[in-house]
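Changelog-linked ticket: S-adenosylmethionine example.
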Amino acid sequence: MAAPKATLWTRDAHTEGKHLVLEHYLNAWFPILGMGNRNGRILFVDGFAGPGEYEGGEPGSPVVAMRVLAEHSAKSMINAEVVFFFIENDPRRAGNLRDHVDRWRPKLPANANVHVREGSFDVSMKDVLDDLDEQGRRIAPALVMIDPFGVKGMPMAVIRRIMANPKCEVYASFMWESMNRFVSEPEFEGPLNELFGSASWQEARRLDGGERKDFLHGLYQRQLKDAGAKQVVHFHLFAGNRLKYSIFFGTRHTKGSDRMKKAIWKVAPWGDFAFRGGRQDQLVLLGLDTPDLRPLQRQLQDHYGSQGWVTVHDVLEFVRSDETIYHDTQVKKPVLKPMEQNGLLRVDENTRTRKWTYPNGCQLRFEPHATS
Ligand SMILES: C[S@@+](CC[C@H](N)C(=O)[O-])C[C@H]1O[C@@H](n2cnc3c(N)ncnc32)[C@H](O)[C@@H]1O
């Protein structure tokens, strides 16, 4: 899609997937970071905020974020100051967004503050980070959404500075079709060097199709890790069979990767980490609560089958990490219990008091996979 010129544009079906995942993640993020005096201030940055709405009246990402807080069941227990920082470089879109913010402000709790900044993401973030550096302070724990048209203006150098705070996370998307095209266009060399924080993406020119996609996705994931993310979860938004957006979430914590995977599973319950806008059976399938978890059984056997005894705690940490696409509530009853029933798992009875339970200190031994 070429970047639209009008202030508002039509929301694509796949954009809804991006917003739904954001909504589910923020629903967990606000209380985890904002409750119990853990942090004095928390920050949601929408670096390419848009006008706050789409042509059909659907909410834009800044409104999605404000609405999650305004309607949160734990709102009164979130005692950190919650700052929304929306950056948008188009004056008309920034103006439209300000109107939305004015309408939402009265619904937000008194400890929430909203700022709309007209300007570019990289320069605005650099200004904020430079000011903080001068004062010898660090950026507050933040979720930073980076959602441009195309690939320009989202330098890895800025992400590296954000990720210097261990409690900061990024939710970055790029449009796959633009990226695929720009790889061969000389004028995009600079923006792509900035995006990846490296010139290694140029190797993709020799590759086609799926190989090119896997190479560039793998490179972006590695570069995010080099910039400080310890866990990188990524998923895809499709329109029909066409990959539209690749979304990457970077965090230092397995709790973050686990919560993000839970958010993705809610929106994409097929276990393929892909949201397919317009899929006919979407609404029916969204009700699914019994996904096929046999691939996780197999992954646990492959990972632990030759390792001897391990604790449930270690297994949960492995599942929460970016090494799997699963999350921790999919482990005990849905996977460990049937594995034990089928003789694929032994449990040290001295480490639990009740059969078919798996407390965190419980010791397990996985049988190697039959063919391995
Ligand atoms: C894909 S749209 C964002 C949509 C919005 N995040 C949402 O989900 O509703 C990208 C927005 O970024 C703005 N933009 C483009 N370049 C920018 C830059 N360098 N810094 C900040 N905003 C920019 C565009 O005007 C556009 O409104």
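Closing comment: Example verified and attached. The chain has a mean pLDDT of 93. The pocket of S-adenosylmethionine is lined by residues 46, 48-50, 60-61, 87-90, 93, 120-121, 147-149, 153 (CB under 6 Å).
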